[in-house]
User: Fold these one by one.
Assistant:
Number 1:
Amino acid sequence: MSPAHDELPATALEFLGLPLTATFTTLRPDGTPHVTPVRFTFDASTGLARVTTRARARKARNVAAGGAAARVALCQADGFRWLTLEGRATVGDDPVRLADAVARYTARYRTAPPAPPDLVVVEIAVDRVLSLGLRPGLRGRT
């Protein structure tokens, strides 16, 4: 399935609200994938996914090196249920955007994210969604 973010079914939005970890895939400057576990948030009204991290983290440096063409993927899985959010990413340290990302993270995971001095937010403008096992009535583990 690849609907626009504003067309996601309720089961997908419910799944994205669970306090689960996801894998975050970025591309290194040499084109090879870098995959790391992350916690993230998704705002269906804007289609933005957010990941907070350190500025010196490989994932942040990969996004920065990719410039306007930086494409990434977030994949949240629970048993055989999974959902992937793909899109273009930017990384920044704007205090307003960081505060918003931290507030959303805290609401989803019921704890504040780590707060290193070089905290940044990776924002992903989601333009593709893929999933499996998120039909109504198919619950899996939660």
Number 2:
Amino acid sequence: MLVERGLQAMNVELVSEAYAIAANFLRHSGAIPVSLVTNERLLGLIIKLLQQGEFNKIRLANKAIAKFQQTEARAVA
């Protein structure tokens, strides 16, 4: 899945760890359902942040959570 998106092999682990952190938080907060299915929107946010130069997994997760919640808030409003 990540290889198809053109990510370098060294970044796959970083993306997967950041995704796991963010998805775990969002699942516990009720923003995304508890499921084994990858949330494509969250994954896309993490990949975009990585492409913009963010390489710290905690910052990647936190920024992706913030952006995810912003788009959720706009959709509700």
Number 3:
Amino acid sequence: MDAWVWWLIAAVGLGIPLVLTAMPEFGMFAVGAVAAAVADVLGGGKVVQVLVFAVVSVALIAVVRPIAARHRNQRPQLASGIDALRGRQAVVLERVDANGGRIKLAGEIWSARTLDADQVCEVGQQVDIVEIDGATAVVM
């Protein structure tokens, strides 16, 4: 059997742990094996094939891993759900104090309470949403 076939078998063999473990390094080694198969088809000797495998695999790991790590550590740019409500403004519909009240937030009526126990917000006043506690907006 030709060497390029063995390189393709190695690429498939490296692709299996990629799928099972979700470790992208195996995929980079698989791409290196495919590159070595191409080197064999183009007439490269055994040393050239191994060098192509090593260089392509290491280059992919050196380039792709830092990019992937940078993307993994970034927070999502789009807030959704209750995270999207924090920091927004609402209008008081019923007097809001530490015990409760009602506000209009994003077109919906919410129960609300103040962050400070001494604070009172009157009808028509603009308030800022500090957090969402269950189904209650905490305002100030």
